[in-house]
Structures are given as C-alpha cells and as structure tokens.
Specification:
104 residues; mainly alpha; 4 helices; 84% helix
Length: 104
Amino acid sequence: MHWMLLFVAGLFEITWAVGLKYTEGFTKLGPSVVTILGTIASFYFLSLALRHLPLGTAYAIWTGIGTIGTVILGIILFKEAMDPLRLLCIAMIVTGIVGLKLVS
C-alpha cells in the first residue's frame, strides 16, 4: 500500500509539473488551479508514503516518477527532443528507481 501511495504521489507530481507549463506564469486560472491542487495532492500522498518508507528512497522514486512522466508528456504534448542520449539518461533513471524498489 505504501508503494501505491508513493506512485500516486508521483502521478500528481507529473500533473503539477505539466500543469505548470500551461499556467503561463500563473496567468491562466484553470491550469493554475490544477497545478496548485496537483502540488497539494502530490505532497499529501508523499507524506502518507513516508510514514512507512525510507525518506531517501521515497524521495528518489517520487522525483523519478515525476521526471519520467514529465519527459514523456513533454515529448508528446510539447514536441520536445527525443534524441538517443536523452532517452538513455531517462532509462538510467528508470533503472535507478527499479533498483531502489528492489533493495527496499
């Protein structure tokens, strides 16, 4: 259950990070509200997961989920670069997340 809470926190991190792009400096109300609510939800679920998971592991996985999801959505939604070196770096993040889960 703790890992599921951490995963949900990571999904909300993706929500606020992508939402931040749409706020245009918090000048657009709808995206700004989604971004703020996503941030609150992300921190809330992270705090629940931290009741039972080690801080360093949970934080690394939380930011990793956010990084991976944000990169994928950046490629899909904003046509960001998809060059091999960038994808290799993302793959290393995924490997680190899996490794942390396996040793925890």
